[in-house]
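Recall the central idea of this unit: under ordinary conditions, the amino acid sequence of a chain determines the structure it adopts. In this exercise we apply that idea directly, starting from the sequence alone.
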Amino acid sequence: MSRNRAPALIAAVAALLALGACSAGPVTNAPGAGLEAPPAAAAQPALTAKDVGDLGKVVVDAEGYTLYRFDDDKANPPTTTCVDDCAKKWPPVVVDRTAKLRVDGVEDSAVGLLERPDGTTQLTIKGWAVYRYSGDKQAGATDGQGVGGTWYAITPEGKKATPV
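Accordingly, the structure predicted from this sequence is:
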């Protein structure tokens, strides 16, 4: 190989390696953090419909935490009103707009995005902005259900969960 071609070949290999590092895997959600693409854990969906307590099927994140909707928000058009102190207690589920979300038990067409006032992108289900509750201390907890008569676990159809 000539010396003139070696730098170009090295650059091409480096570019291919960089592209491989950018491939998006499934996303997870930590309390108060956005959904991010972890390098391993390829089998776990970002959202799953799961039977939780006496609420029947609700949507949980990749870590099994119950997700909620807020009655003061609007679904059409998707609008969030939970900001500042509210967002500290009810962290919005924010995502990378370009990430490929894996879902299980939630129709792909039900999942959407909205831009929050701070410029981040929040996940929606049937137009309803989705949140976690800071008071849920473990996966499967539903301590946010019915708080203030305005917060409810969200079903895969975007409805309020009600005890069965």
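Confidence is low (pLDDT under 50) at residues 1-43.
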